[in-house]
Write a structure and sequence with these properties.
7-stranded mixed sheet; 7 strands; about 220 residues; binds magnesium ion; globular; alpha/beta; binds 3,4-dihydroxybenzoic acid; about 20% strand; Rossmann fold; binds S-adenosyl-L-homocysteine
Length: about 220
């Protein structure tokens, strides 16, 4: 596939409407410097998440998968002053880098990073009655996406927006015999989404400066 047109159009959109400033660029650089993989959302996807957060008037956001804090910063920037974003990360080293970036963005008063296995942190959030969240972004390891979705539903109210990244994987989800556990994980999630009568959902394919993929957009009824 010739992806150069997708990349050029992504640039065009970013030049017109993107808001990737020095702090966000610095976040990407800090990740490179620390050897953290560049598997963050793209700038235009970050802006897309911002638009969605504003659309649902989000005051309380949950993110599963922090990495270096890139998507976290996009999302937290549209929270009101009394808003809150809780983000879950397995790797202490990534969380440390993310924390520095969040401080540089001036967002440490509204962002809380919880280090540990997302499954444990989600159970703790539920036990502590931290829900309901207005928006939940699922973007951690792919094999347990269905379980993350089940926790997200528990931590939701009618109208909560759930977004899940990486659910198309260059179309590998079309292959029923794919043995990549990440692909199998999102295939299982996509099927669970389709079977769930409690939600209104679709999947948007994404192309641009990163590989062809997709985001599930889910409203809880
Ligand atoms: N949302 C980020 C990208 C997240 S990449 C952005 O767009 O900027 C996926 C992250 O999930 C990685 O940082 C990885 O360490 C983390 N992760 C992987 N397995 C996890 C688990 N079991 N619990 C919590 N986080 C996990
Ligand atoms: C991977 C994870 C992501 O969240 C992403 O956006 C791209 C790739 C991965 O684990 O391969
Ligand atoms: Mg992702």
């Amino acid at each position: 596939m010739d992806t150069s047109l997708f990349e050029s159009v992504d640039q065009y959109i970013g030049n017109l409407l993107g808001d990737e400033d020095a702090v966000l660029k610095g976040t990407l650089k800090s990740m490179k410097d620390a050897g953290i993989p560049g598997i963050n959302v793209t700038a235009n996807q970050g802006k897309f998440l911002q638009v969605l957060a504003r659309l649902c008037g989000a005051k309380k956001i949950l993110e599963i998968g922090t990495l270096g804090g890139y998507s976290t910063i996009w999302l937290a920037r549209v929270l009101p002053a009394d808003g809150q974003l809780i983000t879950l990360e397995l790797e202490q080293a990534y969380a440390d880098v993310a924390r520095q970036n969040i401080i540089k963005a001036g967002l440490d008063p509204v962002v809380d990073i919880k280090v540990g296995k997302a499954m444990d942190s989600l159970a703790a959030l539920d036990a502590e009655d931290e829900g309901p969240f207005d928006m939940i972004f699922i973007d951690a390891d792919k094999p347990p996406y269905t379980e993350y979705f089940e926790w997200a539903l528990k931590l939701s109210r009618p109208g909560t927006l759930i977004v899940a990244d990486n659910v198309i994987r260059e179309g590998k989800v079309l292959d029923d015999n794919c043995d990549d556990e990440r692909v199998r994980g999102v295939q299982r999630f996509n099927k669970a989404l389709a079977d769930n009568k409690q939600v209104t959902a679709t999947i948007i394919q994404t192309v641009g400066s990163k590989e062809h993929d997709g985001m599930a957009i889910v409203v809880v009824m």
